[in-house]
């Protein structure tokens, strides 16, 4: 089967989410996933989960074999490659580069800024890009260490003055031969890069405590240019991995903690909508992506559920 055919099959709607929901709700063994959450004194708190767990995770998986390149992204988010001019992309939680690499390879006009809380992850990303047989992409990739769940994004993305007046220009009065004067529009001052065209948030938001998600989205809104897009993909409600968590691994409603201390949240469309609209975004697309994946070794079919979303920063009335 050709690679193009594999991509098309990957994106097909293999089953209806509502049918899966009904199956789960009827099955008594899944009842604890549906009940309200009341933490016990011995329950770990998701708020206590910090970036150290993910740093340790990336240190253990520093070989880079844990993640596969996300080739489907350009099919799912064609906005990244249809634009003719130069674009700037911020990849949040870049991991080992499985998202940044296909974006950089897509077109020569793309610049990617990538952050992660793990230096090991950033080092692996740089290594992967340097050895990707695409030598021209390294100079368009700018990684930086940043714990986005707890800290504001650097001011060099979009400085405070440009956030207040995103369309401002520097005007200088220059007298002409008659002494009356002309207005010359200078290039924008080099106080910041002027904002980001696209933010990619791919299987990242689910990895932070639910209580911090609103803060993160509000911060991402500030670094986007007016009209810029946030491209979202993450775990959906009743995904196979959610149903595998045991009752004692629940640390919140639809929120779970693995044995290594890393978190995983499973989103409904309503929760995603409320989070993004509450942060000030405009909803463009939001849906479940339901795919049957087949385990190569066992031949077992697995029902995967992801949430696909596109959200836009308003062009007016934002700061």
Automatic annotation (TrEMBL):
Its EC number is 2.1.1.-. The lineage of its organism: Eukaryota, Viridiplantae, Streptophyta, Embryophyta, Tracheophyta. Belongs to the methyltransferase superfamily. METL family. SUPFAM superfamilies: S-adenosyl-L-methionine-dependent methyltransferases. It holds the Pfam family Methyltransf_23. InterPro entries: METTL2/6/8-like, SAM-dependent_MTases_sf. Keywords: Methyltransferase, Transferase. Gene3D superfamilies: Vaccinia Virus protein VP39. PANTHER family: METHYLTRANSFERASE-RELATED (PTHR22809), TRNA N(3)-METHYLCYTIDINE METHYLTRANSFERASE (PTHR22809:SF14). One of its GO terms (biological process) is methylation. This is tRNA N(3)-methylcytidine methyltransferase. It is an enzyme of class 2 (transferase). GO terms for molecular function: RNA methyltransferase activity; S-adenosylmethionine-dependent methyltransferase activity. S-adenosyl-L-methionine-dependent methyltransferase. The keyword Chloroplast does not apply. Coiled coil: none annotated. It comes from Dendrobium catenatum.
